[in-house]
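Reviewers of the previous submission asked for a worked example of the structure-prediction workflow described in the proposal, so we include one complete record here. The input consisted solely of the amino acid sequence. No template or homolog information was supplied to the procedure at any stage.
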Amino acid sequence: MKMTKRIFAVIMALAIMAIMAVPALAATNRATLTVSGDNLAGKKVTAVNMFQDNSQTTDANPNYVLRDAWKPFFATELNTTASDPDISTKAYRYVVAMQNDSPELIALAEDAREYYAEESTKTPASVEFVTATDQTADSTGKATFSNLDAGMYLVLPAGGSTSATRGTDAMIVTIRNSPVNMQMKSEYPTVEKEVKTASGAYAENASANVGDYVQFKLTSTVPEMSDYTNYIFKFKDTLSNGLTLVKDNNHPMTLTINTETLVEKDGNNDNDYTFTQDGQNFVVAINDLKGLEADTTKDISVGNTITLTYFAELNSNAVIGIAGNANRATVEYSNNPSSNATGESNPDVSTVYTYEIEINKFSMDGTDKVALSGAKFQISKTTPNGTPIQLVATSTANVYRVATPQEINNNSVTKITVVESPADGKIKIDGLDLGTYYLKETEAPTGYNQLSSEVTVVISTDDSTTANVTESDYTNVYYTVNNTQNENANDNKVEIENRPGSMLPTTGSFGTIALTAAGVCLVVFGIIFTSRKKKKAN
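From that input alone, the workflow returned the following structure tokens.
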């Protein structure tokens, strides 16, 4: 009898354990959802549960039950009431009858998004939504939800995403017991920042002389704004310390949408956009983008290009060399139809580069190079014997910089066109654009011959030693001196040798020819004079 009771107790314990194991089995009916999107990096993604799966199994027979928060929504969609006892079944059949990414399902997702956006912001809340924890997409644009309970979800990214092509950024997805990967078709406002190159085309990067005015271009597109009564849109730009914004009649700032040129607001009008500046930062805010798009007298519509162009001077604070002068731009945009809340795009960066050359003046003592002081040079651009570039001395000894227009026009600033080699023979000239330069020796060191022709220096992104040239790579430039390229990229040394001979210029110079001719004349005169003297003696 005791044994029978013991066996019965064991059976009952096993039965209880089996019953308790059912929720555990249900808990295993979960999966991971990975949401990816081209514009999702750094953005939050939300998964809102619409139907829960009460089947507690991992087989192909789910038992979907509509969450209470969504009953009013589907009651409107199905023309019934939220208290309808069959609303779960009707709602489920309504959704699954639609094909994936069909116009009907896309429209339903957009309606659900609007319902969620409106109801979730009410205070006090009239319904309680069951949402997964918001996930922030990583740098590759992926947001991962681990161990989601089985069911049907509305998935949507952070506010502000629009899609002129699809009509919504929301999607409906089913989660069961295997991983789900979905591509979020979100389209956030973005900005592209470019700078005009020497060719006249716009590119990500460019180069310039210190003192040059460079033109930047920012581009974005008119977003889909049907949910909004007013839409905030701002270009936000940050210039590096090496650039100064220039905004005058000769260097205008221009804002266009499609073929329409917008008018800046000033003290006498209330026009299309407002410009504000704070140090190296400035903002161009379109006052009523929604109104401009709705204005039938203007040729503006969703998807049109918004373009801002402006000028900046590469100034005396410009960073020299491959670090460059980077500039950052973003777009600030509305991201909630119910408020003035805004989001901000990922930044886009455009960089302006400027370079230097280092003149090394020397003579040879056997196989050793000996630095020479006292050599004087002028530098010009484009043509030999061209107008010398005006320079100013920097705070570093024997380092000179291209003068800015303001310095050239300022009589109190000392400008020079001739630089002289010091004891170590080294002179640096900063602030040079890509291009061809000519160094003319105007005076040789005492006891040395003056150079007979200019030294040609070419600064280029073109590596002449390889066919694999990256013309837009301004961080690898090549220096070619008198048709011989320096061996390594960014080697800016210009080696210039002088030869001894205080009276005899270098071979091939005008002085050499003149002196040689004079010598020949003297020899000929001596021969003739000697001949005549002999004839008279005879």
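The first strand starts at residue 30 and ends at 36. We consider this example representative of the routine output the project will generate in years two and three.
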